[in-house]
Amino acid sequence: MRKIIFISLLLTSNIVFSKEIQLFCKGQEKSMTSNEVNSKTYEVTFDDVKKTVPYMTVGLMEGCFKSEYQKSTKCECSVNEKEVKCEGSYVGVKGNLTGEQSFTLNRYTGKLLTSRSMSGKEIDSGKDFYIGTSGELSCEVLSKRKF
């Protein structure tokens, strides 16, 4: 009988104290410079208790990941009852580019809005360049927990 009570308490506590919410987001991102539209998918996991974002797809926030080509200068995320928001930036290790990204996930609608910009000089030609994209994606919970 004690084993059944212990197992029941353990299972109940795991469900009640679950922290991480994993989302799968898909939609379109549009280039601001060429008007090209691309289909994108991202995964985002946030912790509702610790108010952190422990996992996101690498392409979503370049400034939050280590790379041999760029150095992160900012990676800040916040989680509250209305939204999950992250901002990041980076510079090229050779000093030839800078980039900024952000995303906001509306927890009521499940919409993920993305924004990314990168500018710098091409190594071969020395020409200046700018790349900017924005997107709107719909997110679904991968677990059965409410987001």
- Total strands: the figure is 8
Largest sheet: 8 strands, antiparallel
Shape: globular
Strand arrangement in the largest pleated sheet = 3-2-1-8-7-6-5-4
Low-confidence stretches: 2-15
Approximately how much helix is present in the residues?
Answer: 10-25%
> How far apart lie the N and C ends?
36 Å
Content of β-strand: over 45%
Instruction: Note the run of SSEs as H and E.
Output: HEEEEEEEE
Provide the gyration radius in Å. Answer: 19 Å
How many domains in all?
Answer: 1
Mean pLDDT: 85
Q: How many DSSP helices?
A: 1
Give the class from helix and strand content and strand pairing: mainly beta
Describe the structure.
By secondary structure, the chain is mainly β. The chain has one domain. Helices cover 10% and strands 56% of the residues. The chain has an eight-stranded antiparallel beta sheet, with no helix packed on it. The longest helix has 15 residues, at 2-16. The radius of gyration is 19 Å and the shape is globular.
SSE layout and pairings?
Elements: H1 2-16, E1 20-31, E2 37-47, E3 52-56, E4 70-79, E5 83-92, E6 97-106, E7 111-121, E8 128-141
Antiparallel strand pairs: 1-2, 1-8, 2-3, 4-5, 5-6, 6-7, 7-8
Summarize the structure.
With 147 residues, the chain is mostly beta strands.
Characteristics:
147 residues; mainly beta; 8-stranded antiparallel β-sheet; 1 helix; 8 strands; 10% helix; globular
